[in-house]
Amino acid sequence: AQSVTQLGSHVSVSEGALVLLRCNYSSSVPPYLFWYVQYPNQGLQLLLKYTSAATLVKGINGFEAEFKKSETSFHLTKPSAHMSDAAEYFCAVSDLTGGFKTIFGAGTRLFVKA
Amino acid sequence: GAVVSQHPSRVICKSGTSVKIECRSLDFQATTMFWYRQFPKKSLMLMATSNEGSKATYEQGVEKDKFLINHASLTLSTLTVTSAHPEDSSFYICSATGTSGTSTDTQYFGPGTRLTVL
User: Fold this and answer.
1) What is the Cα–Cα distance from A92 to A98, expressed in whole angstroms?
2) Mean pLDDT across the stretch A17-34?
3) Residue A41 pLDDT level (bands cut at 50, 70, 90)
4) What is the 3-state secondary structure (H, E, C) of chain A?
5) What is the structure's pLDDT at A30?
6) Contact B111 A32 (CB under 8 A)
7) pLDDT of residue B100
């Protein structure tokens, strides 16, 4: 069974500082991994995805994530935080078995201080 | 590309009434659509998976007679909350995976529907 663990329900950084949101996964088959962002009262927007190609994945808005199989991790980073990055971030895992069901982590709320 | 819409964005209804929420893929054909429920400050909980032309597959613990899902075409799926009660109040989000013209390994999400049952 697949699962996703996001370490830290809240992360606070200063504007211009490095953003690091942690995600560890569990999957019995090679996983597809995703990061989504959700702004208040809105749906989810895909930031980036890993689908067994390059292990360093670049996404929108300057975010990137690195797939590390040995650590079963897929942490999300951004070199310099902007105020507009304040939102909820979800890590998700899926595979092609079971109809491409996607399992979401609990989410991490990112706060950006001026 | 790969835009998913939901209607309505917000609905308030009285207890005991039924509410229908539409999910449409605007620029691609959605072979599979998913319905999620999200409680305040919580993650998404998958309710059901629907494939065009067949019955939806519900997750354990989700009442299929209460949450009716219809996926009648490749661009439309509907979720009907029957005999709604205050505990059904929540944020409902749909997503879709497509065929050609979109990434078939990615879910595209609608903006969500806020349901409030009085």
Assistant:
1) 15
2) 90
3) confident
4) CCEEEEECCEEEEECCCCEEEEEEEECCCCCEEEEEEECCCCCEEEEEEECCCCCEEECHHHCEEEEECCCCEEEEEECCCCHHHCEEEEEEEECCHHHCCEEECCCEEEEEEC
5) 77
6) no
7) 56
A7 touches chain B (CB under 8 A): no
For B:52-91, CB contacts with A below 8 A are: 57, 91
Is A3 an 8 Å CB contact of chain B? no
| Cβ neighbours of A45 in B, within 8 Å | 109
Read off φ and ψ for residue B102, nearest 5 degrees.
-135, 170
- Three-state DSSP class for B23? strand
To the nearest whole angstrom, how far is the Cα of B41 from the nearest Cα of chain A? 9
By three-state DSSP, how is residue B86 classified? helix
Closest approach of chain B CAs to the CA of A108, in angstroms?
10
Nearest CB to B112 within list A36, A42, A106: A42
Residue entry with tokens 């304040």: A86
Contact B95 A90 (CB under 8 A): no
Kindly state the tokens that stand for B81: 């909350």
Question: A49-106: per-residue pLDDT in tens?
Answer: 998 778 899 999 999 999 999 999 999 999 999 999 999 999 999 876 656 678 899 9
